[in-house]
Design brief:
This protein has helices at residues 56-62, 141-146; strands spanning 12-13, 21-26, 32-36, 45-49, 52-55, 75-77, 82-85, 97-98, 104-109, 112-117, 128-129, 175-177. The protein is mainly beta and 178 residues long. A hairpin with a 2-residue loop joins strand 9 (104-109) and strand 10.
């Protein structure tokens, strides 16, 4: 697969208040991805992760997990009780793929999730952040297969799940579930 983003329906500004230009396109990593159309300096707030705030209980009923199949939703965990469901009122941030070698990070600011550049990002580069998914149960090989990583980074864990002994890579409690 080519790493050059394919044309999208339209190129979009990241946020009404941002000058960052992004494109959603097919990704060599996984499915769709978000690509920088212009260089993005380190520390830039790129986009807010938007969607409807719903309870985990509601989200679990709406998007039940299917045993033996990879997990895939557009839920971003805010805390033990609430998530952002980007399937409802979400924006392009929902298409940012996970990376074990991220160029972005998710930042929780008063319950709002923003994606910010960890380093300078080149035009044409795909955005990615570590989803930092933590589960309470023991991480078995079967469970890791339900949360596969496709980032192909040299440091790839092979799963979106963070090892129990690992340190969080995202500030605050923010974590994304796909």
């Amino acid at each position: 697969m080519s790493s050059t983003p394919r044309p999208a329906a339209s190129d979009r500004d990241a946020d009404e208040s941002s000058s960052v230009k992004l494109r959603v396109a097919n990704s060599p990593r996984h499915g769709r991805g978000v690509f920088a159309l212009t260089p993005i300096p380190k520390g830039t707030r790129i986009i807010e992760y938007k969607g409807k705030r719903v309870s985990w209980a509601w989200a679990s009923r709406k998007y039940p997990e299917v045993e033996g199949e990879p997990t895939h939703t557009f839920l971003f965990e805010l805390d033990d009780d609430m998530v952002i469901d980007a399937n409802q009122g979400g924006n392009d941030a929902r298409w940012i793929n996970h990376s074990c070698a991220p160029n972005c990070q998710a930042v929780d600011e008063d319950g709002r999730i923003y994606i910010e550049a960890l380093r300078n990002i080149k035009a044409g580069e795909e955005l990615g952040y570590d989803y930092n998914i933590r589960l309470p149960e023991r991480l078995t090989p079967t469970l890791k297969k339900r949360w596969p990583c496709y980032c192909n980074a040299r440091t790839c864990r092979g799963t979106l799940l963070v090892p129990k002994r690992g340190k969080p890579t995202l500030p605050g409690k923010a974590a994304k579930r796909i």
